[in-house]
Structures are given as structure tokens and as C-alpha cells.
Amino acid sequence: MSYVQIDQAFKQFGKSVVLQQVSLNVEKGELVTLLGPSGCGKSTLLRCIAGLESLDSGTISVNGKDISQLPPQRRNVGMVFQSYALFPNMTVFDNIAFGLKMQKLAREQITAKVNQAIELVHLSGKESSYPHQLSGGQQQRVALARALVTEPDILLLDEPLSALDAKIRKSLQSDLRSIQRDLKMTMIFVTHDQEEAMTISDRIFVMNNGEIAQQGKPEHIYASPKNEFVARFIGSYN
Ligand code: ADP
Ligand code: MG
């Protein structure tokens, strides 16, 4: 049994079907990417995993437990968005500490965990800065630390690097990957960028129109696209 199992996920908004019986598995400690053009259902699938939307039918299980009926706060799933969504009136430290304070951890424990997370994302020295004093890349590092500090079972990342310029994006890609490997964190990463998916993923799920068009290791998908959609979509990367 896989760590994350999504079985026959189905979702429609009004008459438009956005997820058509999507099934996929993710192993513990794996980084998989949902890759596909805008509108294919990537964010909806992540939001259903996080509990921000509910499936019309199908199940989502993590570690053998069906979470698809649980409220978001009981799913133990972390999420990072394209817009950093930091609290503007809180320092870096307090932004990261927020979730731990909600869990009512002791103050020394919070300090230790937050400092560890700050070090992990290479933001030492920025503890007292406010979000507006940071670059986009640094703000996204705070968002990452904030999501990781509560030790979620899975981390969901919805186009987290898409708003950043190329150079900063590259360095965050490689930092994210090494953090993921160090922590052995299970991550589901969403992007519409073929090159990013190729660089960062253990496995890729190519999505089209609410379905998985192909899944496999990056080199496999690149070498043997299964149909014309995948070939065109992957081939447009240069
Ligand atoms: P992606 O993240 O791949 O760009 P989305 O999951 O955001 O795709 O959207 C998939 C489809 O569902 C799109 O056609 C979008 O317009 C539609 N959609 C997403 N959220 C809603 C919503 N809350 N209400 C109605 N339609 C929605
Ligand atoms: Mg999206």
C-alpha cells in the first residue's frame, strides 16, 4: 500500500467536470509533480487533498487512513501557495511560529523548532524582519519554513516558484529538493513548467483535462511520451 492513495477522485463545478476519476499513488518520502497546462485541474486536486474543496466521489488516504471526510485542520497536510500569503504584520519568526502557537507548544520548544526551520531554509539573521523587507524568494522560504515547522505528513506546493525570476527560482528548486531529501518529506508539487518538473521530481503525473495523461520518471516521460498531448506538452520545453 502506498503512503498517499488517491482513488477515483471526481469533482465538478456546476456542469463542468474538473477531475475525472483521477487515481494516483505517492510513496513515503517521494517528491511527485502534477504537471499540466493551466485549467487542467492541478490546483483543484491539491485543494481536495488539503480539504479546502471536497470531492464529489472518490477517496484520499494517507498512511492507510481515509482523510477525504476530515476537516482541513485534522488532515496534517501542509500547503505552500504561489502567493506567499504571509502575515504582513508579523516578523519572520512569528510567521513561522504561528502554527506551533496554535498547537499550544511550550515557548522553548517553539523557539527551538522555529530556529531550526529558519536554518533549514537559509534565513538565519532574518528572524526579526517583516515580509515587506524581504525579496520574493526569501518570502517563499518563510512560507516553506512555516509549512514544514509543524511536521506535516505531506507537503503540497501549488506553483510555489512560478512568480519568481529565473535565477532565484533555480536556487529555490535545488534548495527545496535538498530539504525534501534531508527530511524525507513526502511532497506533491504543482507546476505548468516542464523544465521545472523534469529537474525537481522523482515522478511526474502529466495532467490534461482533469485526467492523468501519463505518469512515470522524468526521463521515461521525456523519452517515451505516451500520446500526442504529452509529446507536444513536454516537447514545448526548451
Ligand atoms: P489548474 O490549477 O491546473 O490551472 P484549476 O484546478 O485551478 O486548474 O482549475 C480547473 C478548472 O476548474 C478550471 O476550468 C477552473 O476555471 C475551474 N474551477 C476551479 N475552481 C473553481 C471554482 N471554485 N468554481 C468554479 N470553477 C472552478
Ligand atoms: Mg493552479
Describe this protein with a few key phrases.
6-stranded mixed β-sheet, 4-stranded antiparallel β-sheet, 8 helices, binds adenosine-5'-diphosphate, binds magnesium ion
Kindly report the spatial arrangement of strands forming the biggest sheet. Answer: 6-7-8-3-9-10
Poorly predicted segments: none
Structural class: alpha/beta
Average pLDDT taken over every residue: 95
Q: Tell me the number of strands.
A: 10
Quote the distance from N terminus to C terminus. 37 Å
- Element string (H = helix, E = strand): EEEHEEEHHHEHEHEEHH
The major pleated sheet works out as:
6 strands, mixed
Bound molecules: adenosine-5'-diphosphate, magnesium ion
Rg estimate, integer Å: 18 Å
Number of helices: 8
Q: Roughly what percent helix?
A: 25-40%
Strand content range? 25-35%
Which outline best applies? Answer: globular
Protein name: Carnitine transport ATP-binding protein OpuCA
Keywords: ATP-binding, Nucleotide-binding, Transport
GO molecular function: ABC-type quaternary ammonium compound transporting activity; ATP binding; ATP hydrolysis activity
Domain ABC transporter: 4-234
